[in-house]
Design goal:
By secondary structure, the protein is an all-alpha fold. It has a single domain, classed as CDP-alcohol phosphotransferase transmembrane (TM) domain (Four Helix Bundle (Hemerythrin (Met), subunit A), Up-down Bundle). The chain has seven helices and no strands. Helix 2 packs antiparallel against helix 3 and helix 2 runs parallel beside helix 4. The radius of gyration is 18 Å and the shape is globular. The protein starts with 17 loop residues before the first helix and ends with a helix.
Length: 208
Amino acid sequence: MTSDDSPARRPIASRSAGWAIRLSKALAASSVTPNQISVASVAVSALGAALLALWAHPVAWLLAALCVQLRLVCNLLDGMVAIEGGKKSPVGALYNEFPDRIADTLFLAAAGAAALAPELGWAAALAAALTAYVRVFGGSVGLPQDFSGVMAKQRRMAALTLALVAQSVEWAFADTRWSLGIALALILAGSLVTCVTRTLRIAKGLAS
């Protein structure tokens, strides 16, 4: 297994976890490709989104929360299998970015539907996509890609996971969707702040 400290690679603490290393080694030794793992993240996200959009029940919300975490595991493993496992492909960068944007949109738009606030869900999805646009733009002008921010991908998904668990508890007391609505509002606001802070860092980097 080899390593890659490329500035275009998102820093993830769980990359050094024993379970992640063992699983990525097993996948690297199999016929599974990193691009297939990336596509699997979209499939898992589509399942979670369908649960959110079609079934207003605590079981659906808890299963959707599990899908959010499985999506993140796929996002972790595709890079590890590609880099540490030595299975990079010429189109790997494409598969690394596009499935993420699809997964974010599926989850956040469906969460908006589940919260009975579809406009809020779509706004959060757009803001999430903008954070990635700003990051990639920084890389396109010769700067290291900036993965920081109050609502970077891992934090967006952590907020959504907690909201789904909280919503399942809230449902036991009232037929309301405050947990999901508040989380989406926070994701929207945090993503916009992340866009601003990343843009300011790009401007500073270009000026220096």
